[in-house]
Amino acid sequence: MLIGVTLALVFAAIFEFFRLRYKLLSWLVRDYERNRVGAYIYFGVAVLFVTLLFPMNAAISAVLVALLGDGVGGVVKRLPVRRAGEIAFFAMLVVPFVASLPLLSPIPSFAACFAGAIVERIEKIGGYYLQDNLTVPVTAAVVYFSVNYILS
After folding, report:
1. Where are the domains of the chain?
2. 96-132: string of b/e by CB count within 10 Å (b at 16+)?
3. How much is the pTM?
4. pLDDT band at residue 3, thresholds of 50, 70 and 90?
C-alpha cells in the first residue's frame, strides 16, 4: 500500500509541476486552484502521512472519511436547498461510517467520522485558511487511533 501511495503522489507532483509551470491541462482543476497547488496533492500527502505513521485501520478510516465523507459532503453542500451545510455535515458523518462498518471497529470509526465532519466545516483559523484535503484525513486517523487505543 505504501509503495502505491508513494508512486501516486510522485506522479501527481510531476503532473502538478507541469500544470503550474506550463499551464498544461489547467481545465482539469477548479478555478480557484488554477494558480495554486491542487487539492489532490494535499490529499496525497495526507494519505502518505497517515499510511506511514498510523496502523492500517486508522489509515483506512482516514481515507474513507476523506474520500467518501468529504466528497459527498462537498456535493451536498452545493445543493440549492435550505440547511445544505447541516445536511452535508450529516452526510459526511453517515456515509463513511456506514462504509466502514464491515472493515473497522464501530466506535473509533464513528468518532473519526464525527471529527472529520467537524474539521471539514472549519474554513480558517485566525488568518490561515485550512486545506480540508489535508486536515480531514489526518484528524480522522488521529481520532481513530486515539479512541481505539483508549478502548483496547
Report:
1. 2-151
2. bbebbeeebbeebbbbbbbbbbebbeeeeeeeeeebb
3. 0.84
4. confident
